[in-house]
Amino acid sequence: MKTVLPFIAVVILVLLPLFGVTVAHQTQIFFGVVVPYTAVAVFVFGFIYRILQWGKSPVPFCIPTTCGQQKSLPWIKQDKLENPVTTMQVVGRMLLEVLVFRSLFRNMKTEMKEGKAVYGSEKLLWLAGLAFHWSFLFIFVRHYRFFVQDVPTAIQLMEGMDSFFQIGAPLFYMTDAVILGAVTFLLVRRVYLPQIRYISLAADFFPLFLILAIAISGILMRYFFKTHIVAVKQLAIGLVSLNPTIPEGIGAIFYVHLFLICVLLMYFPFSKLMHMGGVFLSPTRNMANDSRIVRYINPWNYPVHVHTYEEYEDDFREKMKKAGLPVEKE
Amino acid sequence: MYNTGKIIAGLVVFFILATLPFLLNLGKANAKIEPSIDTPEINAMPKKHCVEPKAFMRSEHMQLLNNWRDQVVRNGNRIYVGSDGNEYPISLQNTCMKCHANKKKFCDKCHNYMAVKPYCWGCHIAPKENEA
Ligand code: HEM
What we know:
The complex is a heterodimer. Chain A has 13 helices and two strands. By secondary structure, chain A is mainly alpha-helical. By secondary structure, chain B is mainly alpha-helical. Chain B has a domain at about 35-120. Helix content of chain B is about 45%, strand content about 5%. The chains are: A mainly alpha, B mainly alpha. Protoporphyrin IX containing FE (HEM) binds next to helix 4, helix 6, helix 8, helix 9 and helix 10 of chain A.
């Protein structure tokens, strides 16, 4: 159920624009203008709202999870990236986490062998995760050629790198193969491994199916069911220059691609995909392990009335003197 | 809110990145892309037509060229029969570019707009054009 339902949902999301645009041309305005604007608004403001909600949650303790030698005596070498104490070190650690998924690299698998639990390293998830995220980013940035009129050299360089092998025409992009392979792996992993299947929810399968459908529709559009790309750019520029137009000659496949992306954008703020912003707000990653250097104040603490020794002595100084007890202030 | 400064700074970066296409196109008009077919060869045609219908050409010409190349280089077949029954010698320089002799005002019009740079012209010779 939790696998089939999201699959059916994505199939419906594909059929909706497919039928809409082929049966009634008027719906092009809906799928080409109304939905994209709504999606961008929901994404941007939903994202900001979620981050602000998180920002309002207090962190009661200093809880960085560390995995290296902590700062100690001068002759003991500190592991600055795995156990940071300064902000710069935290930034370094965060970069390592965000750019190369450092903590996923530690992923282990546990198996029962001859009645004993054995642990082994498991780098495949890290590799597939990294391949997926980087190819997604590469494709996403490359798509800027649809949204700016004088395409910057940097993006043209990326296109050149991606199509380095110059296979066919239009040139084959490497990232297209990588993203398909990686998403398929991530999907198969959830279906094939019984432990992972057990903990997977519909909310884990839906984004995978959706992203797979986006990638497949894009790849079909580039290499197989081709459409009028110049008109697509006219539509895209129209949208971002707040002057929407629906040019003639764009195939239904484009509206499928666009609609799925809009669904992804609208789904984003309410789903686990928010880990994109959330990783920066994770206390186990973004705090310095300096609780032995600076006192960590729990923001929950209500003001506690403390009675210090000095105040105690002020209260009882005369009595203490009479009893012959030593006092600090005469 | 906690860590307000850092969170707001992060959100500002997010907002700018997310709306960058809008910011970059602020107040810019959409360019009109009209590839010119004003060449002597085409003007001399009684009924102006390409090797295939226009809608097919504008979306599929790269694959057509790829097939043409394979036909010549792999199969040694130098004749293409269009879907309308007309025969054309298969050649980038001597067929396409004979009619579309105005590469800069035709092919490059679309390609510059889309930032595609076909690498064909490193070997194949582009038609000579006087105006830049
Ligand atoms: C989440 C964002 C998106 C993803 C993951 C995505 C994915 C893809 C992929 C994998 C391809 C195959 C070719 C390539 O790699 O360039 C593609 C092509 C394409 N995409 Fe997207 N896409 C996204 C957003 C968009 C948007 C917003 C548009 C609207 C303009 C769009 C329009 C197109 C077009 C027109 C093609 C065909 C390109 C060509 O023929 O060269 N995509 N997309």
